[in-house]
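Annex B. Sample input.
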Amino acid sequence: MAFTASEFRWDPGEVATRPGPVTFRVTNAGQLEHVFLVQDSTGRAIVTIPVLLPGRTEEVMATVSSGPYTILCTLAGHAEAGMIARLIVLAAP
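Annex B, continued. Sample output.
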């Protein structure tokens, strides 16, 4: 699942997937450093890339279960400026 960071947004802004293992491939196409954090509906961190430098691509893996997740950059002011995306994990068939 690919995400691109820029100032101040994630692209895509919303994605859906099925429960199970997910590989997040995150590219920073912006000029600023960013953080990639996925948290569940309780605010618990599922996976993070603590430093995503401009021009870099990093991959992380996580196992997700059904429900909504929030993807955000936790650097000061970034989420408040709109750097938030949604991950919807659909119920298993």
